[in-house]
Amino acid sequence: MARKRTRKARSGPAGSGRGKSAPEGKGGKEEAAKKGERRKGGWRETLKMLVQVAVIFVIVRFFLIQTFVIDSGSMERTLLVGDFLLVNRAAMGSEIPFTGVRIPGYSEPRRGDVLVFDPPHDDTLILVKRLVGLPGDTLQMRDKILLLNGEAQDEPYVVLTPDRDRSDPGMMWQQQILLGGPRDDYWPTRDNWGPLVIPPGRYFMLGDNRDTSLDARVWGLIERWRFEGRVMAIYFSYNRNSLGPFPWLREIRWGRIFDRVR
Fold first, then answer.
1. In which domain, by residue range, is 132 found?
2. Which of 42, 102, 179, 205 could form an S-S bond across to 129 if both were Cys, CB 3.0 to 4.6 Å?
3. pTM for the whole thing?
4. What phi-psi label fits residue 150: left (phi over 0), alpha (psi between -120 and 50 degrees) or beta?
5. Are the CB atoms for 69 and 83 separated by under 8 Å?
């Protein structure tokens, strides 16, 4: 009896082990398969998220918001070297990359706008200037004072210096739109030029720092499609001309951050 009970005691666990071995093996494979599916699902979700982020980035970057960094003093005091700008691309419209198709903006350029644009004289540059002349306007400058349709303009944002006036051969393009037609005695200078009649579909841009700005006075008018966007605000600023270490950290212009550009 003792032996039989001993055999039963032994056979019980052994038998139960052999009976469960097949289901446990099958269950292990199923669990491994489930883990593999979860891994694949995780990679698919990650890839999907990355694609969505990339699409959002492209839409924002090319059609809604652009960033721009000021690296010259032609727009001082309005914009300083080291200002980082947010530019509204949707306002002016933008081109779909690699297609040549342009999406129209929701507004037209306005006199006084600070705009980012591609200049006609250099395809590698992107500039920011103030729009002062619209199609149909008559512009001229007399002793640094800008006249629009015969009236002197109040421009509190303009920086003027006592520097002597100077001529530039590049300004002779103005003969093409000179009021009354080309004249042999017309010799425009930086501070004295015009009157010029802005033709349809063309715009006249000037820098606020008038005596140091290379602008439409020299390189001419621009077409509507050249506008990249309207400057909205400064999102960061630091003294980029500093000779000290880490100026982007130690010489931040806190008072200019989030300033609207007018």
1. 69-256
2. 205
3. 0.77
4. left
5. yes
